[in-house]
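Sequence in, structure out.
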Amino acid sequence: AGLKIREHPKKGPYVDNLHWWVAKNKEEVQARLDQGYRHRTTAATAMNEQSSRSHAIFQVRFTQKFSEDIGNGRTRETEKVSLISLVDLAGSERFSTEVMSAAELDRMTEGRAINKSLSALSNCIYALYRASKKDTKGPVHIPFRDSCLTWLLKESLGGNAKTVMLAAMSPADTNYEETLSTLQYASRAKRVATHAIVNEDQHVRLIRELREEIDMLKKQLESRAPQAAMPSTPPVPKAKLP
């Protein structure tokens, strides 16, 4: 509790004073995931006996390192970085106006905070949807900073990312309003367009693109070389009139 969110000029938003754990294999990654799962805040609600009463984000950063031949027997060490964010959103729930017990009042207080952050997420998704439409005039402000949740998910929502959202719904007819709201939420989210590119050093990418262009030009020259080497057919001499 009380953790502050900062924003790095290159790496984007992050939580201050949190530590990254280096995992050597998938078992260590699973162990950290299980540890975070045990620290989730859950409680029984009218729709779910183990409802998440707080948002949870589990991030895994993959770094791929390799050597690239730059000629003259020299190599350059380069790396590509990707970040996977697994997000468990707390479920929203409607509350009645009837007399509540102390436990129900606590759930209602939690629900208000959850609904507030989910509303901020919905506003960001709607703004991103408007920004992706071709007929939208002028720039569209994306309110990422309205919530800690949306600020941390800034890159996942509208930046350099590929995003998948799973919507959980109840089949009971008594939860019709919640199901309809969730479907509308998911329908709006799937219209947001993200653009994923490879995270690599700009200079390395420029050198790679120039090398690819040089190789392409060499192949074009090699394909034309046999035609240029072929002797041209000598012209047929014209017969002289007597």
